[in-house]
Amino acid sequence: MTIQRMDNVAIVVDDLDAAVAFFTDLGMELEDTGAIEGLWADRTVGLDGVRSDIAMMRTPDGHSKLELTKYHTPAASGAEPENPPPNTLGLHRVMFAVDDIDDTIARLRAHGAELLGEVAQYETIFRLCYLRGPAGIIVALAEQIG
Questions:
Q1: Whole-model pTM over 0.85
Q2: Confidence check: pLDDT of 140 > 80
């Protein structure tokens, strides 16, 4: 038996509206929003008294999704360190292919995004960068050259 697909990646954020705005400016589309609570939610995530709001974002091609989650109860706990470097164990980053990396960076800077390094070129194939997005996550961008 094999998996059918990767359905989504979840990101816990402290400001759901700001995260939706960030990923909308990146080019994702808001698919749906909803409130999550009840015994089924508690059992699924292994926490008691879960009450959260989610926003499901999808890429324009419809193949990839991000689930942005704002926990009201229990309160979200902060990661240590606050803005972990790219070589921290665990979830590393989320990467998006973009058609204009410079324009994308400019749009995301309006939402507080900061480059971790600089835009670099890999051979004659890609221009790449890492930037820090909502809730300190690392968002990678790749623009194919040519």
A1: yes
A2: yes
Q: Which residue has the tokens 């939610």?
A: 41
The predicted pLDDT at position 131 comes to: 94
pLDDT reported for residue 97: 94
CB 143 within 8 A of CB 127: yes
> Contact, 11 vs 69, CB < 8 A?
yes
Q: Residue 33 forms beta bridges with which residues?
A: 55
Residues facing 115 on adjacent strands: 131
Q: Tell whether the torsion through CA atoms of 27, 29, 85 and 90 is positive or negative.
A: negative
Sole residue written with tokens 């995301």: 108
Other CB atoms within 10 A of residue 14 CB: 14
